[in-house]
Write a structure and sequence with these properties.
Helix content: 25-40%
CATH architecture of the largest domain: 4-Layer Sandwich
Pfam families: Metallophos (PF00149)
InterPro entries: Calcineurin-like_PHP (IPR004843), DNA_Repair-Maintenance_Comp (IPR050535), Metallo-depent_PP-like (IPR029052), Mre11_N (IPR041796), Pesterase_YhaO (IPR014576)
Protein name: DNA repair exonuclease
Keywords: Exonuclease, Hydrolase, Nuclease
Structural class: alpha/beta
GO molecular function, one term: exonuclease activity
Number of helices: 12
Shape: elongated
Length: 413
C-alpha cells in the first residue's frame, strides 16, 4: 500500500491580538502580528511540497470575537491552494471558533469538510482512512463529546478529531472533558486533538496527540512550535513533528559572575546571544533575557538598565535572528549590604510604604488612569482584570524602589 500522509494542527488563532507590548520595533511588531498567518502558509507549503493528502484542523482556527475581512480572504487563499492540489481539509470548530463571526460568514472551498455539532464520519477519497469529528455547538462544552462519536469503521484506519482539555490542563478551562483511557477504549487508531497549546503525545497505542499551537503569541507560549505529520502505511501509523513557527519566544539567562567591567560584560552578552541565535529553530526568536549572578557592577547595571537594554538589543539584532523583548536583572553585589547604611534604611522604608493599603490603592488608581489612555487591546494585555492590575502596580512600585536604590548605590561604584 502507498503511504498516505496527513498533517494535524490546531489552535492557529488567526490574527490573535499582539500581546508582546514591549516590542518597540515597528517591523518586528508587524512580523509578530502576522506570525499566525505565516504558520498557516508554512503548513500549506509543506502539504504541497510533501504530497500530503489531508490537513486536519482540530479547532480554534479563529480567535474569539476578532472580526477581519482580511483574515477571511487570507484563509480562503490558502484553502484554495490546497483545493487546486487536490488536498482535503477536515475542520472541527472549537470554543473560539463558535464565537467568531467570520467562521460562518463565508463559504468554504469544496475540499473543506466542516464537521457539525452532531458529529459525523467522512472517508478520505482514494484511501481506507475514515475521519471522524465533532464540532462545538456553543462556546462552552462542560460535558464530554465522546458519546457523539460513532464506533470505528471495521477494517479501516479511523482518525478522530476532538477539541478537548482532556482531564484538565494548567492555564486552560475545562472543555469537552474526557480521559486518555476513554479515548483509547473507543477503538480509533489516532486521536487528533486540539485546545491545549503545548504539544503532547499522550499515548501511541493508539495515538492520542495534542499537537500544540503552530505559532506562539507571547513568552507564555515559549519555544518553537510545530504541526504533527501522520504517515499511514498498511494500516500502521507513524508520526513526526513539522516546524511551523515563524517567530519563537524564549526565556534566556546569562550568569555574569566574573564579568567585572563593562568590556567583559559586553563580550559575555555578545557570545551568549550568538549561542542563542545558533539554537533558534524559527526565523526569529524574541528573548526575555535575564542577567544573573554576582557582580561588583550590579548596582551600576541596575542604575543604567536602559543603556544595557539598548546594548543587548544591538547585539541581538546583529545576529540577524534575535530580538530582545525585555532585559531583566537578578543580580547581587559581592558581600552583604550594611543594613545600617543610609540606602539600606531607605530601602526598608520604601518596602514598608509599598505594603501600606493606602499606597497600594493610590498606585492602582493612578495606573488605571494611565491605562485608560491606551487602546482597549493594549489595556487587556497589560491588565485583564483587577488582580492583574494590582499585580502590575506592585511590580512597578518594586521596580521603582530598586531604581532609586540602584541610582544611589551606583553613584559610588
Amino acid at each position: 500500500m502507498t503511504a498516505v500522509r496527513l498533517l494535524h494542527t490546531a489552535d492557529l488563532h488567526l490574527d490573535s491580538p499582539l500581546k508582546s507590548l514591549a516590542l518597540r520595533d515597528s517591523g518586528l511588531r508587524a512580523e509578530v502580528e502576522t506570525a499566525s498567518r505565516s504558520a498557516l502558509t508554512r503548513m500549506v507549503d509543506f502539504a504541497l511540497a510533501e504530497d500530503v493528502a489531508a490537513l486536519l484542523i482540530a479547532g480554534d482556527l479563529f480567535d474569539g470575537a476578532e472580526r477581519s475581512a482580511k483574515t477571511a480572504a487570507f484563509l480562503l487563499t490558502q484553502l484554495d491552494r490546497l483545493n487546486e492540489a487536490g488536498i482535503s481539509v477536515f475542520y472541527i470548530r472549537g470554543n473560539h471558533d463558535v464565537e467568531n463571526p467570520v467562521s460562518g460568514a463565508f463559504e468554504m472551498p469544496t475540499n473543506v469538510h466542516v464537521f457539525d455539532g452532531r458529529g459525523g464520519s467522512v472517508q478520505l477519497e482514494g484511501t481506507d482512512i475514515h475521519i471522524h469529528g465533532v464540532s462545538f455547538r456553543d462556546r462552552h462544552a462542560p460535558e464530554s463529546l465522546l458519546p457523539k462519536f460513532a464506533g470505528p469503521v471495521p477494517g479501516a484506519v479511523n482518525i478522530g478529531m476532538l477539541h478537548t482539555s482532556l482531564s484538565g490542563a494548567a492555564g486552560h478551562d475545562p472543555y469537552a472533558p474526557c480521559t486518555v483511557p476513554e479515548l483509547q477504549a473507543h477503538g480509533f487508531d489516532y486521536w487528533a486533538l486540539g485546545h491545549v497549546h503545548k504539544r503532547s503525545v499522550h499515548a501511541d497505542a493508539p495515538f492520542v496527540v495534542m499537537p500544540g499551537m503552530p505559532q506562539g503569541r507571547d513568552i507564555g507560549e515559549a519555544g518553537p512550535k510545530s504541526a504533527t505529520l501522520l504517515t499511514v502505511t498498511d494500516g500502521a501509523i507513524s508520526i513526526e513533528e513539522v516546524p511551523t513557527s515563524a517567530v519563537e519566544f524564549r526565556r534566556s539567562a546569562l550568569d555574569i559572575t566574573g564579568a567585572d567591567d563593562a568590556e567583559s560584560l559586553r563580550a559575555a552578552l555578545r557570545d551568549h546571544l550568538r549561542t542563542e541565535a545558533a539554537a533558534t529553530v524559527s526565523d526569529t526568536a524574541i528573548l526575555r533575557l535575564s542577567l544573573t549572578g554576582e557582580s561588583p557592577r550590579a548596582w551600576q547595571i541596575r542604575r543604567d538598565l536602559d543603556v544595557w537594554q539598548e546594548a543587548a538589543e544591538g547585539f541581538a539584532e546583529a545576529t540577524g535572528t534575535l530580538r530582545i523583548e525585555r532585559l531583566e536583572l537578578d543580580l547581587t553585589a559581592p558581600g552583604a549590604a550594611d543594613a545600617s547604611d543610609a540606602v539600606s534604611e531607605l530601602e526598608s522604608l520604601m518596602a514598608e510604604i509599598r505594603r501600606e493599603p493606602g499606597f497600594r490603592a493610590e498606585a492602582q488608581a493612578e495606573l488605571d488612569r494611565i491605562l485608560s489612555l491606551l487602546p482597549a487591546d493594549r489595556r487587556r494585555a497589560l491588565a485583564a482584570d483587577a488582580d492583574a492590575l494590582a499585580a502590575l502596580a506592585d511590580d512597578l512600585a518594586a521596580r521603582g524602589a530598586l531604581a532609586v536604590a540602584a541610582r544611589m548605590r551606583g553613584a559610588h561604584n
